[in-house]
Amino acid sequence: MFEYYDRRANEYDHRYMGTGLFADRQRPEWHDERDALCALVAALPIEATLDVACGTGFLTQHLRGSVTGLDQSERMLAIARARRPDATFVTGDGLALPFADGAFDRVLSGHFYGHLGATDRTRFLQEAGRMAPQLVVIDSHIQPGHEAEEWQQRVLSDGSQHEVYKRYFTGRDLAAELGGEVLLDGDWFVAVQRGLAA
Question: What is the C-alpha separation between 6 and 115, in angstroms, rounded?
């Protein structure tokens, strides 16, 4: 998984923007829902947030308050640092967070949870709980033609092929799994919060 996302760094935002390999995909209302997701992140209360697996910082850039982004890929973090120079970015493992207990008010994670198998999900939730009293998880809504859980063959612009584990959700199902409340249950994205406001 690390190699796939590290190699994908320079084209990661193509999915969000509908460019590159995503330019010809038919995704009705994608741009409107993406903008609604960004607005949702921007509307979160001003708090100290740890963005786990922040990638290029596409969502990170919308967070208000003190922001720390963590990712395993230095290529991803180079883009995130340029995008959000006032934030702190750290290279690290989302399943073994290198911070003290209670170091943040909120953990946010976008499109990371859906790549985790059962054991890693448990580890992530334990680590997130150790970090902060609040957790916001953003991921992908289930789509026609996809199973809720599947292995995918993904191809990058350089032609490399990667096998990727992926889960898809409805907002209600993710909220039930996390014990939280639905913030967004769209056609493309889901967002769930648990913690103080849940």
Answer: 15
Average pLDDT per 10 consecutive residues for the chain, totaling 198 residues: 86 93 91 98 98 98 98 97 98 97 98 98 97 98 95 94 97 97 98 77
CB atoms within 10 A of CB 191: 25
Burial (CB < 10 A; 0-12, 13-18, 19+), residue 132, is: buried
Which helix (H) or strand (E) is 142 found in, with range? Answer: none
CB 155 within 8 A of CB 134: no
SS3 61: helix
Rg (CA), the chain: 16
**Strands 134-140, 189-194: pairing kind:** antiparallel
